[in-house]
Amino acid sequence: xxxxxxxxxxxxxxxxxxxxxxxxxxxxxxxxxxxxxxxxxxxxxxxxxxxxxxxxxxxxxxxxxxxxxxxxxxxxxxxxxxxxxxxxxxxxxxxxxxxxxxxxxxxxxxxxxxxxxxxxxxxxxxxxxxxxxxxxxxxxxxxxxxxxxxxxxxxxxxxxxxxxxxxxxxxxxxxxxxxxxxxxxxxxxxxxxxxxxxxxxxxxxxxxxxxxxxxxxxxxxxxxxxxxxxxxxxxxxxxxxxxxxxxxxxxxxxxxxxxxxxxxxxxxxxx
Length: 271
Prior knowledge:
4-stranded antiparallel β-sheet
């Protein structure tokens, strides 16, 4: 009788499982909770597990932490963008703190703060850093919201140069935000209040501009961030239009996804 009751219970539980999208659970939780319960058959568990591998794995275990909230030497008030460069013990993580006007660089393996970029007086002093990106040689590029420029530092955080100015002309910016480098070494900049994306050489030489203000395909409203895809296309967080647009490396419209809202696949000011 007990065996029959357990069989019915297992059938009922598996029926309930079938109504849930357990593929959205992380593999860690699938192992800890679902498999360990004994109320889901091994066959059904394998189906769920394989689905999770193919579709979702939304839970991540924290491997290490960097910094904390505050105004101390290795703290920040408003962490905006981050960038990673290097391998092994030389891998570094750059974190832009807009509020404190600096970029903190950490050694990824040790968690040690390697240097503080932009807080010292001089030509390399930052006031409103937003975006950060490393080029192939490990030089750090920082977009400056208040100065409307791009600052460049060497691998040790020493100031090298800056380029750009306030304006809407080629190579000018109005509150530049996210940065990314192409495989060919060109710098892609989300030019926030100019509602466009600019592509520049590493020295700041203008290459091309993409988009203009609007809601149509390939048009932007306050683009916040950019990323270069493996195929060379450029993904743009089109914040004001509550969508992500993908452009070819030359600026042609490829596709867009998302709309304003709180539902699955919708955004509110994606950054």
